[in-house]
Amino acid sequence: MEEELRALLLGAPAVAALVGARVNFGRHPQGEPLPALVLTTVSDREGLTLDGPDGLQRARVQIDCWAPSYGEAKRLSRAVRDLLHGHSGGGFRALILEAARDLGAPEAPGRPFRVSLDFLVTYSA
Predict the structure, then answer these.
(1) How far apart, in whole angstroms, are the C-alpha atoms of residue 74 and residue 53?
(2) Which one, of 82, 93, 86, 11, lies nearest residue 47 by Cα?
(3) Which residue of 21, 23, 25, 59 pairs with 37 in a disulfide if CB–CB is 3.0 to 4.6 A?
(4) pLDDT tens digits for the chain (125 residues)?
(5) Model's pTM, two decimal places?
(6) Is residue 84 classed as helix, strand or coil in its secondary structure?
């Protein structure tokens, strides 16, 4: 799921125009430019029915949109939302935006801004 989600983001012209190839799971490499996306798998579980596994996984993925300004972070979050919310195809059954958070102004000058998006991801195991 991680590789396919990253490829989906990198393959979208609206997202790639803003971040280039700066889409990473876990963390953004120190010293690399912004804007960038940092993806974190918050949870991932096997789908079950009363008869056992249903062949699907259900995950929550947090996508942090980092940028030098609030406007850039917000534009990036909108591009991600437009691409992913309601998406199905490939190994994905559904990507649904569950929550969005603007995390306020940075505490120190020069620190990046962040907008976080939580997606519920249903995909083939």
Answers:
(1) 38
(2) 93
(3) 23
(4) 999 999 999 999 999 999 999 999 999 998 899 999 999 999 998 887 888 887 789 999 999 999 999 999 999 999 999 999 999 999 999 999 999 999 877 777 888 999 999 999 999 97
(5) 0.92
(6) helix
